[in-house]
Amino acid sequence: MTAVSAFREIFTRNLRQSGIYIAFVAIVGLFAILTDGVLLSPINLTNIVLQYSYILILAIGMVIVIIAGHIDLSVGSVVALTGAVSAVLVIKNGQPWWVGILAALAVGAVVGAWQGFWVAYVGIPAFIVTLAGMLLFRGMTLQVLQNISLSPFPAEYQKVAGGFLNGFLGGQGFDVFTLVIAALAVVGYAVSSFRSRVARLRYKQAVEAFPLFVLRIVLIGAVVMAFAYQLSRSRGLPIVLIILGVLVLAYSVVTNRTVFGRHVYSIGGNLHAAQLSGVKVKKVNFWIFVNMGLLSAIAGVVYSSRSNGAQPAAGNMFELDAIAACFIGGASTTGGVGKVTGAMVGGLIMGVMSNGMQLMGIDQSVQQMIKGLVLLLAVAFDIYNKRRASTARS
User: Most buried among 22, 28, 243, 328, using CB within 10 Å?
Assistant: First the structure.
């Protein structure tokens, strides 16, 4: 393969998926320049992780909902409700911190089952069910908190979103433990990618050229290690980043390598064909919303830990941020397309843009306008790709 053909393959093969990574690098580079490098400083990178982790957790569940052809407008209210339940038990009634977390997860599962029942078994569109849920669960939050805020949580609860793992290994100006964990993650990613490539070759499926495969692994590894080095120079490895990493890994496996994941894609891609193929559509849709409820509860625990309390207005507009992350990350408006990693990159783009504009002192109203335009352009790109593909087939 010549250098020209390799370059062409990088920028034309699966443009929809690769383009988002190129855009992410460009946006990070732009704001790094505009903020005189403050964006990439150790303290600021740590703050980005802590500030946007709950949005990324929501985006994991939301992208599965969107792939199946649905939408969930209630996740912000569920974040508030689960945080409120946890706060009432732990702060008001003096229960152990872990009881509050378990109660929040239980409430999230019940909420997901409630909405999954109406969507899957009654047949009401998810847009209507979750719009009703947004109002219902916000009202329940006000009832649980009795219209007042509760704080503070005990120190153990606060560590969920504000704790760090560091100091296990000595370092000179940086935390070696953070670098070791990052290195293990890179090695794991490389091994997993190589095994996936070998499996695809065994079944004579198309794969990227080996030099490009190696280049991709090296570039991703370099970015991860550079990011970890900056974290290690601040406070070490955030606990919430470990939680997020485990969730991303687990749900990447679920969506790409399990029967449930294949069924989700088939339902979103062609519902009628999925039904004819024997997919239990109602059951799959039910569990999609149970899963969204659980992830909303995890996000609720993380957010309440981060804010060190529960507020009636918590989670406001979180659903829009999560939905935007999915669409910017490559999910299709008509379902059947999307990846967990793409949603993560989309969420990081939103986070970097927000953080960068805050560092530059840009007015909040202008920030909202810019983020709205980015979302509009992402959806327009989705529609453009569909039309181009349709024209090519015809």
Answer: 328
